[in-house]
Amino acid sequence: MARKSRGVWSGWGPLLATGWVLLGAGPAFATDGYFSHGAGAQQKGAGGTAIASPRDSLSIASNPANALSLGNRLDVGIELFRPDRSASIVGNAFGADASYDGNGTETFFIPEFGYVRQLSDNIALGVTVYGNGGMNTDYQTNPFARFGATDDAGVNFEQLFITPTIAFRLGEGQSVGVSAIIVGQAFRAKGIGPFAAASSDPSNFTNRSTDTAFGLGARVGWLGQLNDRLRAGAYYQSRAYTQDFEKYRGLFEDHGAFDVPSNYGVGVNYALTDSINLAFDIRRINFSEVDAVGNTLAPLLVSGIPFGASGGPGFGWEDATSYKLGVDWRASPSLTLRAGYDHADNPVPADQTFLNILAPGVVEDQYTIGATYALNDRVELSGYVLYAPEQTVHGRNSIPPGAPPGFGGGEANISLGETAVGFAIGWRY
């Protein structure tokens, strides 16, 4: 598919700008790779389970077929997110051995918004605005200084989704839905000048301020009530083709290409008792199909293909599967308590950690608790806490030896841990 020109997107500017204001333009999360573990306070409190578990209107971000199970409602939420990013280099011939703190920016506020309206018993509309993914590192002591880098180092990547949705009832207990995905992305890199010597376009590699790119994708889903207690769901999200990052066409493969990878999943929800529900989801994210993310450093080191060229090097991420388990307990007519667990594959191989000092999306285990309290028949308050213990990937043959594109050998070790607290208010009408 041909890359999108920027002129195609001029008409979407006001909508995307509004979405970025709602989002807060500062996401920096990385729980399932660089994807968020879920959308919506009630889903996040239950480990991100949502494919067969419609709780609030943000659940249509996981399965658009959920829209027919929610009534009319509006949800607005905000998350306070604190990632803990760090790296270390050992055994390096150029004297770069040290530990490096990537937390120059410590706290991020991430809003989200969802709306669902039932047009009839058989048709529902909805829309969500949320941060699908992102990554931020800010090393005030530059890990690449010994190789000639100056000033701070790091990246900031933001990914906004706006998803207008329609759902149809096929029959008793069966619904399908489809969402258009309007994607807005922003990216900035700084302090990585030494890599520019191996770029096809060194002037568009680093320290080029923030660049934006927009694109389109789609998501389809099914939700079915299999019996009185068991519900199942499934979804597929297409690859979203986006514009190139023109300011970083010397960094990302194929002259700045950075699409959103396809992903898919299945889920079940089982009513263990009249007050306790168990949910289980599986999601697969195809990181490797986007070459800027999935290509390793081998094209450069083995074949001499530079950064930014077609078929050039990337961050070496592998596809990742996440397994989510959630429980909802209706403790009283007004109070629902939740807990959850999400285990995601680490997408960063041990031999690709050097460049991923900038993007250490290596968290594997996330634990959540949450609750919803109904103030009355129309208004409810929800909250959740997420804790992801620090995960470290120790490099193995990770730093190229010798002269550029070598960097003196040794190993780069990368670490990430996360905590988050979120709140939301929901209105039924």
TrEMBL record:
Q: SUPFAM superfamilies this protein is in?
A: Porins
Compartments, as annotated in UniProt? Cell outer membrane
Q: What is its main location?
A: membrane
- Note the InterPro entries from the entry: OMPP1/FadL/TodX
For whether the record's keyword set contains Signal, the answer is: yes
Q: Which GO terms describe its cellular component?
A: cell outer membrane
Highest taxon listed in the record's lineage: Bacteria
What membrane topology is given?
A: Multi-pass membrane protein
Q: Return the similarity comment.
A: Belongs to the OmpP1/FadL family.
Q: Which organism is it from?
A: Candidatus Viadribacter manganicus
Q: Which UniProt keywords apply?
A: Cell outer membrane, Membrane, Signal, Transmembrane, Transmembrane beta strand
The GO molecular function terms of this record are: long-chain fatty acid transporting porin activity
Task: Please give the name of this protein.
Answer: Long-chain fatty acid transporter
